Automatic annotation (TrEMBL):
Highest classification ranks of the organism: Bacteria, Pseudomonadati, Pseudomonadota, Betaproteobacteria, Neisseriales
Keyword annotations from UniProtKB, A to Z: Cell outer membrane, Membrane, Protein transport, Signal, Transmembrane, Transmembrane beta strand, Transport
Domain Trimeric autotransporter adhesin YadA-like stalk, residue spans: 54-89
Gene Ontology CC: cell outer membrane; cell surface
Name the UniProt record assigns to this protein: Uncharacterized protein
Family affiliation: Belongs to the autotransporter-2 (AT-2) (TC 1.B.40) family.
Pfam families recorded: YadA_anchor (PF03895), YadA_stalk (PF05662)
Gene3D superfamilies (UniProt xref): 2.20.70.140, GSPII I/J protein-like (3.30.1300.30)
Keyword S-adenosyl-L-methionine included in the entry's annotation: no
UniProt-listed GO biological process terms: protein transport
Source organism: Neisseria macacae ATCC 33926
Keyword Membrane attributed: yes
Entry-linked InterPro entries: Coiled_stalk_dom, Pilin-like, Serralysin-like_metalloprot_C, YadA_C
Length: 165
């Protein structure tokens, strides 16, 4: 057994034990092989170089500056995809409503008033519409109002007027 006395403060330029080196530039670990220096893991003032290796067993992030793991990232991707699909369904239902309203025939004789229905289908969504139109006795004015209901549970309302000469 040997006893070695040291001072309270030991100052050395570098310490190497096995493949681990600690010096003023940081900590480096020659791994997984010493034959390929690109695989050396190092922690220095400019950051962490993990030598092309995965960082495993990362806990879920809690703070904005924490690293995230694949499960968290996949969860965000799934939520985004679900939102996109939900918005797409709503948009398709809205288009179906517009098609339904546009499919309602309107009156063509001066002085006439009529009620009509229309239906629309787009992207797997459908809608029904009902509307009323009227033409002035002189045939110069046409007014029309309608509403639709689609398979996504939304209602659309439209109105218009036309003056012709």
């Amino acid at each position: 057994m040997y006893n070695v006395a040291t001072a309270d403060k030991l100052d050395v330029a570098s310490v190497t034990a096995g493949g681990v080196t600690v010096n003023a530039q940081g900590v480096s670990i020659a791994a997984p092989t010493a034959h390929n220096p690109a695989n050396t893991v190092s922690l220095s003032p400019i950051g962490l170089n993990n030598g092309g290796q995965r960082i495993t067993n990362v806990a879920p992030a809690k703070e904005g500056t924490d690293a995230v793991n694949l499960n968290q990232l996949a969860g965000v991707g799934n939520a985004l995809q679900n939102n996109i699909e939900r918005v797409g369904k709503k948009a398709y239902a809205g288009v179906a409503g517009a098609i339904a309203q546009g499919s309602i025939p309107q009156v063509t004789r001066p002085g006439a008033t009529g009620i009509g229905v229309g239906s629309g289908y787009y992207g797997g969504q459908s809608a029904m519409a009902i509307g009323v139109s009227a033409m002035s006795d002189g045939g110069n004015w046409v007014v029309k109002g309608n509403f639709s209901a689609n398979t996504d549970g939304h209602v659309g309302v439209g109105a218009g007027a036309l003056y012709q000469w």
